[in-house]
Amino acid sequence: MTPSQHLKLGLIALVATLVVDQAFKVFMLQVVQITPGQVITVLPVLDLVMAWNYGVSFGMFQQDGMAGQWALVAFKVAAVVLIAWWLWRAETGMTALGLGLIAGGAIGNGLDRVLYGGVADFFAFHITTASWQFQWYVFNLADVGIVAGVALLLYESLLGKRPDASKSA
């Protein structure tokens, strides 16, 4: 793959992540009209719920006020600019794909903050037995893109092949 093909792959991943995330959020909020506290059981281990996240990952640093929300938006914009710069310089398709997924997810969650004042989360995984219960944080498809992108970057940095420097000289 050429650098321009890497960039194209990353941009396709960014747009696809953003579109799928925002389309699902519009569907849940406008068509299903899910409300906070409402639970829609999809599988014995998966529910759709409505949770607004006014903080960052895993609900940390909750920001109820407008100034805090705009500070988080500014942080996301700065992060996306850095990721875009990295994507522009990506040397492998896997790096470009991972960065595109991360950027698409970050833009999707940032757009939520601008449109709604917080991030709309819907997916709740849980396991319940007679003596034990586990529930993961509520998340959305943008978060899935971010986690998948980070996983690709980690995989590549730990196990992936490096571009041959002698070929690029």
From TrEMBL:
Q: Which reaction does it catalyse?
A: Release of signal peptides from bacterial membrane prolipoproteins. Hydrolyzes -Xaa-Yaa-Zaa-|-(S,diacylglyceryl)Cys-, in which Xaa is hydrophobic (preferably Leu), and Yaa (Ala or Ser) and Zaa (Gly or Ala) have small, neutral side chains
Q: Where in the cell is it found?
A: Cell membrane
Q: What is this protein called?
A: Lipoprotein signal peptidase
Entry-linked PANTHER family: LIPOPROTEIN SIGNAL PEPTIDASE
One GO BP on record is: proteolysis
As recorded in Swiss-Prot or TrEMBL, the protein's gene is named: lspA
Annotated source species: Phreatobacter oligotrophus
Q: Is Repeat tagged as a keyword?
A: no
Its EC number(s):
3.4.23.36
Q: What does this protein do?
A: This protein specifically catalyzes the removal of signal peptides from prolipoproteins.
Q: Which NCBIfam families does this chain map to?
A: lspA
Q: Which family does it belong to?
A: Belongs to the peptidase A8 family.
